[in-house]
Amino acid sequence: MAGKPGKTAPRLLQDLLSYDPRFEERAKRNLLTSAPPHHDPDAPPTAAVPLRNCRHNFLNKEEQSLLPRPGEEPDHATVYKVASYCSRCRYHFDVVVDHRDNGERNDPCRRNNREFPLHHFLFQGEDGRDEHALGGFQTKPRTFRFSCSASPCPTDLSIRITPPRLSEQDVRTLTDRAVLRRRWEAAKLRAGDRADTIMARPVDAPDFLNTYLQDSLNPQKGKARIPLLNRKFLKTFGKDCDSILEKVGFTSAVETDDDGSPAHVWYLPKPPPAGHPLDSTEPTQRNLIEDVRYELNTIILDYPEQERLGARHVPMNPQFARHPMERALGCDEYPRVKGRTATRSANHEEDHPYYAGLGAVGDFADELLSFAYRRQMAVDEANAPYYFECLQDLAVGRGSESLQGEVAVLASQGCFKRSEVTFAYRYFDIEPAHAHAINDDHIIGVFRSRLADISQATAQESRRQLQIIGLARGSDTIKQAASDSMETYEQALSYLGMDKGQDDEFIPTMALMKTSENPANKDTVNRAIQIIAEERNSQRLRDYLEHGSMAPAAMDIGEAYAILQVNDRTVYLEPDILASQVQSLIESNPDSIPRIQEALTIVRQDQESRFGKSSDYQMSSTVDYPVETWPVGCCNIGNTCYLNSVLQFLFTIKPLREMVLNCEGNLQKLTPEALETKRVGRMAVSLARAETGQQFVRELRKLFDRMIRARTHNIRPERTLAALALTRGEGVDSVVEPDTVQLGLGEIGGLPVSGPLPPPTKADSAMGDDDAAKAPEHDKKGDNDDAKSDTSTTAMDLTDSLNVPAGATPSVPEPPSRPPPIPPRPQASADQGFKKVEEVARQQDAAEILNNVFDLLSCAFEGESTLRDGEQLDLIKKLFFSDVTTVRVTNGKRASKSDLQDNVHVSTKDRDRTLCAALDDEFGSTELEGDMIKFELFEEAAPIQIINVRRLQYENGRPRKDESHLALDKVLYLDRYLKKTKTLSEEQLQALRDDQWRLQSELRRLDERRRTLKETDFEKLDLPSVLEETAAWVETAQTEMPNLFSDSIKTESNGLASQLGQRAEELRPEISELHGHMDKLEHEIDAVFENCKDHPYRLHAIFIHAGSHSGGHYWIYIYDFQNNIWRSYNDETVKEETEETIFRKVQRVHPPTSTGIVYVRADVVDEYTQAVCRNPETKDVEMKDAEAASGQVINMDTEFGNIEVLDGVPKE
Ligand SMILES: [Zn+2]
Ligand SMILES: [Zn+2]
User: Fold this and answer.
1) Cα(885)–Cα(789) distance, rounded to whole angstroms?
2) Which ligand is the nearest neighbour of the Cα of 101?
């Protein structure tokens, strides 16, 4: 029985009331027998029941029923039958509830049974379904069988559904006026003068038929025979109703009349006498006649009274069958929640889908909801997270304390929601939909590969997520891996947020905190306590582990708030502000640390119960750095860790930071006139785009301000900021979608190539159509050698119209190209929007975000003047944009074209190399078709140079990350890439370049040879290895499988293995020789410009990525030129880093690699960069901020906004 959800009796009955066998195909499932699809809270509400379905009005067929008697309790011999039909669709529904026991099960569920107050039915099967029914339209009776899932309950239920005895066609034949007129005409022809003078009324045929059938059930002498030539019969039924009459049991005969002429007559049906309702499972002919009469009763009563004047029909008044059904199913008097009874009427209002998920209905009292949950769990444990989600959300939606308490208990036992499982998979970059195809080892592998690079706090989070996956998959291996990854005493203490000075007394509190954060932590918490217990040799802790005692002294909630000096406990406390409050309390009252921490625990729990769980209750870490002079970290707010790197980088660019902090005076005026001439990234700037930019600037200012004033070591960026940073153009709804990514470097295997995006083109182009994409520059190939020409899309074309892409001519005024942005919707969708953002974020990288941020800033700010093509000149352009000229030489003729670019791209090409060598490659000459060569130089080099490293490569049909090491110099001389330097003229530089290119072309030749040797069709094997493997195989085969080789081959192959081996030995040195030779050449290439050192740039920042091509973790190293130190900014942690760590090549699988490198012109490093900018506020001001911010924060985290009954379903 396991693995199939069930339905409580009221739910089943409710489903029966709206199950319409006629429209089963449309509902795409059998509403009666199947469980509803799992509800997606993010999807728009849909009607669970198709609108056209009949909402049945069941009327009881008394003669065929065996109803419960008032006050009767079923026992193990009771069978009920409620035979009924619907007065709307005329279908027949026979509900048979059979309580007869089979020996073991003899205690039917009933209201006063505490364990099983209601039946919980599991569908067992169906009889009579016609698989070939036309359009799924079932014309035969079908019987659905269910049985109760409660172990002591013997109840079986069968529901027989029979289509109307009189089909729609039958009814038309009997009542259609046109048909009746033809019948009357036929009667006149046949009977002449004897025919009636008026045609039959529509009500007549049903009325007469009803009378005949009534007579047949109560036979009376002389009434059994009807002559066809009877005037009324002839015009009412004629000959064309024969099939209907025959169907209900009439028989016809030709008799000789008194005058000897033949007479056609009909005889009434002769049904058997009435029997017991349970005598036969198949209906008797008597039942059939009864059914037809019920249908006729409905048909006749459908006519207005004046149209049935004189009818002989005596209206039948069958009783409603719903109440007897409820009684038979034992669900007529279940405990209901007050005020929700309305939803039970058979109108179109539906319960929230979570009710149906539990097999419950909306008016269930709390205890029945929890009963329904337990029943579903008992029969379908595989969907436990869904049922838990249903129960939890309903508990919150109802505001039910008892249910929430129960949910909390369940959570403490390790229950979790579907969304938590989904989140956990995504956390490890695993698509939840594919999770079933991924084995445990792979997941553990991803987890382990990350551990090395992440902070302690993030490691804990990873562990927690892994634990959830372990529980969801029921995998002990994964659970073990999640808790085992903690080994040392220090790790254990840090995990619990403790330090060595704190004694055992605190452990239960900290453990409780961890498990209340997430029950999935339980195993890990126990593991940590175990480690601490061993280290301290503490019997008390061991006791605690075993018995769970050693409870902390209880502290009153009010007291806890008072200790933390919070006056109003009804407001939301922003976690980092609370943490800073606690920290300052601890600093001033070091003796009260235990009490403060206890109070903090209680306040947090209280806050969580009031405002929902917040994942960011981080203990302020035990960092030693002084708050006043150390940069703050940014907590990770989703799958957006590179965003933090970008934000940290931007913060250190002093002029940019100051412009943002003092933005108000410089913002773009938003008048149509002012915007008319504004061009950013060659595009006109719409009002919406400028507004989005300004919204971003204000959010960024807020963040920068907090980074300066926070009293804590880290803060939490707001989601709005993240959403905007990832937004192209006009608001959060227009988040960069992967398809626009294609415009840039293209994508590989669905992932964007690791490089910057061009500024908005397609998505935001006022032309907004394919023209922009078809422009010549938009080379979509994304091939390595050509990719740099692609980056020219980032820049404006500053030459004459020759190269201006069609459709992008900036002087043409912009027609409105898209509807105005949708106004922001309240709360729930804000969260949804962010989910979308997170989704996109997973597919982007830091360079793309940086590029988008520049675009947003330029849109937001007023330009100082204009450049070529009307492009706006502003601070962003001045700081980051170089004017890069691409020169093409054909037969000595030079043609050049200049573009503004905010970054340069380099490739490592699968070789450890220096940045200079990679840059030489990019700028150096490339041979193109038709004897054309191409190279690039800086017409004007920006003071801040951003260099992006293409890490994504494509190999054997799969994307792969190029993990070669890129050696960085602390000083980079740009001389060789410039048009001219301080000491060298254009010609002198070109002469040096020619020398260099000659060496480079030799280098390329060697590289090609190396690739041939290195790359084979075998993954991870170079050519020598392939040869060796083959040799080894041949050898083994010869000794172990001698029959494989015929004699002739044997002789020939005798020397084969050694030949292969020999060749491999020759090749292997060739490869290493090649490497040596290439290194030497690169050195010579580098040496060409040895003395060109007029234009030094200093290394400022390095974006680092660790992980595989499909995901991983970002952080950034930033140099502080004022204090002469390096720091690593890894989400919430900012710490000093040694040069050794930063510059070394890491030897391991998936080493961290640089993806972006920033150099700053040596003469302006102090003017343009400043890593530390701190001015922590006093705490009073902080608390005021907390109150001001509270309302907004709550909204963002409200998860249960749409829990009420769905009103969105239109009523008929
Ligand atoms: Zn109906
Ligand atoms: Zn039962």
Assistant:
1) 11
2) 2
- Length in residues, the chain: 1212
Nearest to 1114 by CA among 1102, 1122, 1124, 1123: 1102
Select the highest-mean-pLDDT range: 137-141, 718-722, 807-811, 1155-1159: 1155-1159
In this prediction, residue 624 carries a pLDDT of 67
Of the bound ligands, which one is closest to the alpha carbon of residue 59?
Answer: 1
Asked, for residue 562, whether it belongs to a domain, the answer is: yes
Q: Is 13 in the same domain as 159? A: yes
Q: Lowest mean pLDDT: which of 26-30, 430-434, 1102-1106?
A: 26-30
Nearest listed ligand to the Cα of residue 111: 2
- Band (pLDDT 50/70/90 cuts) for residue 1049 is low
Whole-angstrom Cα distance, residue 1164 to residue 1170?
Answer: 11
Residue 509 maps to a domain: yes
**Same domain flag for 52 and 191:** no
Of the chain, the percentage scoring pLDDT greater than 90 comes to: 24
Task: Please report which helix (H) or strand (E) contains residue 866, including its range.
Answer: strand 865-866
Q: What is the pLDDT of residues 92-109, one digit of tens each?
A: 999 999 998 767 777 889
- For 713-726, b/e burial (b = at least 16 CB within 10 A) is bbbbbbbbbbbbbb
Nearest ligand to the CA of 321 is 1
Quote the ligand 2 centre to 109 CA distance (angstroms): 4
Q: How many independent structural domains does the chain possess?
A: 5
Q: Cα(90) to centroid of ligand 1, in Å?
A: 6
Structure tokens at 221: 């002498």
Closest ligand to the CA of 22: 1
Ligand 1 centroid–CA 1209 distance in Å is 20
* Ligand 1 centroid, distance to 91 Cα (angstroms): 6
Number of the ligand closest to the Cα of 18: 1
Q: 542 alpha carbon to ligand 1 midpoint, in Å?
A: 66
Same domain? For 107 and 47 the reply is yes
How many CB atoms within 10 Å of residue 418? 21
CA of 647 to the centre of ligand 2 (A): 61
Q: Which ligand is nearest to the CA of 6?
A: 2
How far, in Å, is the centroid of ligand 1 from the Cα of 16?
10
- Residue 437 CB-density burial (10 A; 0-12 exposed, 13-18 middle, 19+ buried): exposed
pLDDT exceeds cutoff 50 at 1181: no
Which two three-digit tokens encode residue 374? 């337990």
Structural domain includes residue 501: yes
* Domain-located, residue 687: yes
Distance 675 CA to ligand 2 centre (A): 72
Expressed in angstroms and rounded, the spacing between residue 451 Cα and the centre of ligand 2 is 51
Proximal ligand: closest to the CA of 91? 1
Same domain? 242 vs 188: yes
Average pLDDT taken over every residue of the chain: 77
- Comparing 385-394, 1003-1012, 1180-1189, which segment has the lowest mean pLDDT? 1180-1189
What is the tens place of the pLDDT at every residue in 301-311? 999 988 888 88
List b or e across 259-276, with b for residues whose CB sees 16 or more CB atoms inside 10 angstroms: eeeeeebbebbebeeeee
The tens digit of pLDDT for each residue in 251-308 reads 988 888 777 778 888 999 999 988 888 887 788 899 999 999 999 999 999 999 888 8
137 and 245 within one domain: no
Ligand 2 mean position, distance from CA 5 (Å): 15
- Same domain for 91 and 34: yes
Residue 903 has pLDDT above 70, yes or no: yes
What separation in Å is there between the alpha carbon of 17 and the centre of ligand 2?
20
Ligand 1 center to 88 CA (angstroms): 5
Residues with CB under 5 A from ligand 1 (ion): 54, 56, 86, 88-89
Domain limits for position 682: 633-729+836-865
How far apart are the CA of 87 and the centre of ligand 1, in A? 6
pLDDT at 1195 over 60: no
- The rounded distance, in Å, linking the Cα atoms of 861 and 857 is 6
Do 221 and 117 fall into the same domain? Answer: no
- Nearest-angstrom CA–CA distance, 523 and 525: 5
